[in-house]
Amino acid sequence: MREIYMGLVEQVRVKKPLVHHITNYVTVNDCANITLDIGASPIMADALEEAEDIAGIASAVVLNMGTLNERTIPAMITAGRAANETGVPVVFDPVGAGASKLRNETAVRILQEVKISVLRGNISEIRFLAGLHAETKGVDAAEADLQNIEDAISVAKTMAVRSGCVVAITGAVDVVSDGRRCVCIENGHSMLSNLTGTGCMCSSLIGSFCGAAPEAPLEAAVTALLSMGIAGELAFERAGHNGNGSFHAALHDAVSKLDGEILVGRARLYEA
Amino acid sequence: MREIYMGLVEQVRVKKPLVHHITNYVTVNDCANITLDIGASPIMADALEEAEDIAGIASAVVLNMGTLNERTIPAMITAGRAANETGVPVVFDPVGAGASKLRNETAVRILQEVKISVLRGNISEIRFLAGLHAETKGVDAAEADLQNIEDAISVAKTMAVRSGCVVAITGAVDVVSDGRRCVCIENGHSMLSNLTGTGCMCSSLIGSFCGAAPEAPLEAAVTALLSMGIAGELAFERAGHNGNGSFHAALHDAVSKLDGEILVGRARLYEA
Amino acid sequence: MREIYMGLVEQVRVKKPLVHHITNYVTVNDCANITLDIGASPIMADALEEAEDIAGIASAVVLNMGTLNERTIPAMITAGRAANETGVPVVFDPVGAGASKLRNETAVRILQEVKISVLRGNISEIRFLAGLHAETKGVDAAEADLQNIEDAISVAKTMAVRSGCVVAITGAVDVVSDGRRCVCIENGHSMLSNLTGTGCMCSSLIGSFCGAAPEAPLEAAVTALLSMGIAGELAFERAGHNGNGSFHAALHDAVSKLDGEILVGRARLYEA
């Protein structure tokens, strides 16, 4: 099992999949850089007029609605559908679902009109999309929703069955499920929540690994979250005491230096 | 007096106010990260369709016209008015006022249509908005305007009386006035002007402190500028000799490590 | 000859030219910061309504189509033409030319409607614009195009003659030609391709030097690429072993610390 994750880290560096992002302008630079850190190749392009062309040359598509607007929503739908037609995996990050009518409707519409391979969000966002009661505090998980792992496992499985996609809920413990299997990842560090965009960067890593292994979205998502969690630990060990700025740089350092051996040596995960 | 500023640094970390930004795409990542550094929670959302919803769940709204356009200007007005209705403080950063007709008209329009709690700009921008003669060199203060502190004090007081908002003019010495009182802050470092977005980051910090203490916009603005000034000094001491990139990371480090004791220990300010 | 490049580094710091960018939201923060690092002053403004006003106060205009859209394309044309009318140099970075119909048509349109001083791209992008066979892999040069220096020299000369602009092709060896002369720059480091935006940053540096020496676009482009190449070497020496994040910060450090002496001491270039 661990050999699969180990192998994916090597594969992404060999295959260098092109990952098409339609994403927000807040964290886009970190998303592009973490895609390069892990060994894939990012292309950010959100004009409707080129959504099909770019999705057509990509190995994975990442749709992130962090700063969605009337111009980018149709581009997301078009890019997603174009990817569906050629079997290119689509990762969807429903940033802030629950926080506004526009976000709620857009998230539902994307899930209806595009076949998603991996849906990644925090517990509040995924609870909302699963039709369960959710508190929302902007783009971060509400404290009321940070209950327990059993709850996250149940939400992930329910949503995976209902949506037909792999569901990844990130938090203190990350939970990934395809409806049948469910993997829990204990790696990570609380300092990751001091930086904007660590959720978005997880989605970019999922896109990168999906691009390298489109046939294995569960394993791709797990490997991505392991990578981020372990990089967070390494960044904290080296630079966390300095503060957020040094931690930020050290996080990119750690992802760029990651290899299969580090991943397997530090992975703390179990099936639930 | 200093106990107020000290207390605000503790309060923002306890209350974690949600700060809604409609801001530019140049410095948005730094704005989100400095909001997290100081202990608040950022949400960046500029679609007109969700401006009311997001302003409605926020504790403060920051309007920054750094890269304004026809899509975001109405969103700023709508978010500002929604905040006004529920008494949520609005911070306005008129980036580049004086540099183009579009910026001039938009700044005037926002000041007319939205009740602003704190207006923050450089001396050229605030002189322009006060109807005084101003040189403009893009988004940075013109050298001709960098005259003397007495002038800045006079401009801040005049504009505060005229506009009814707290006016914060940042520069070598920062000046904050509500029309009656006027506080001058001597903290800071010239290297701050080597980085893009240090002005925008000041506005995000003001929004963060206003979110924690909406009843005290003058104190919120002073605490924000003290925080930035002191963080700039600390960043220079630790990393300034390396160059701009290290200074940039060290600035986020310093804000994330700031506490009331550091603030009071290093504050250099006086009333004028 | 080297004295010219050395002098330009001093000149840009004295003249502090205002560089108007209409650029992408992925790398815009790095572009603004590198413009400040080298001593120039950035202004990012992409609204059509202010394109003329801002171009009118700038010393150089940089058009970068990294995340082009229906709103920014007319702004680029308008800003470019306004700059042409007053003799302000225009730098064009045709990011991703060859990757979509929208990019192809926009690049051709800009070259037709705006007089460009310096055109900078990777070998795939410039081959495409020169009407030569090109592979494209998103926004990075395709491996099939990374052939040999002779080829890049030939493409640069051909395109320079055909377009009437200075053409700069960046890669392992950078090539700059005005159709008659051709300068090859061997400085640089492979780690630069691990970061997003190093190409865009080259264009911002070219804009900065063009703003300081509008009469000498070839020399401006060579000085810019020397600056980036040498900064990449210095950043690698100091921080490359840590990984991409530290290298990123060290790159800004190195550009901000660059002076004419370092430039001349480390320059490795020849005319071809």
From TrEMBL, chains A, B, C:
The keyword Transferase applies. ATP binds at R120, T170. It catalyses: 5-(2-hydroxyethyl)-4-methylthiazole + ATP = 4-methyl-5-(2-phosphooxyethyl)-thiazole + ADP + H(+). SUPFAM superfamilies: Ribokinase-like. This is Hydroxyethylthiazole kinase. Its EC number is 2.7.1.50. It comes from Kineothrix alysoides. InterPro entries: Hyethyz_kinase (IPR000417), Ribokinase-like (IPR029056). Pathway: Cofactor biosynthesis; thiamine diphosphate biosynthesis; 4-methyl-5-(2-phosphoethyl)-thiazole from 5-(2-hydroxyethyl)-4-methylthiazole: step 1/1. It holds the Pfam family HK. Catalyzes the phosphorylation of the hydroxyl group of 4-methyl-5-beta-hydroxyethylthiazole (THZ). Its cofactor is Mg(2+). Keywords: ATP-binding, Kinase, Magnesium, Metal-binding, Nucleotide-binding, Thiamine biosynthesis, Transferase. One of its GO terms (biological process) is thiamine biosynthetic process. The gene is thiM. Substrate binds at M44, G197. Belongs to the Thz kinase family. GO terms for molecular function: ATP binding; hydroxyethylthiazole kinase activity; magnesium ion binding.
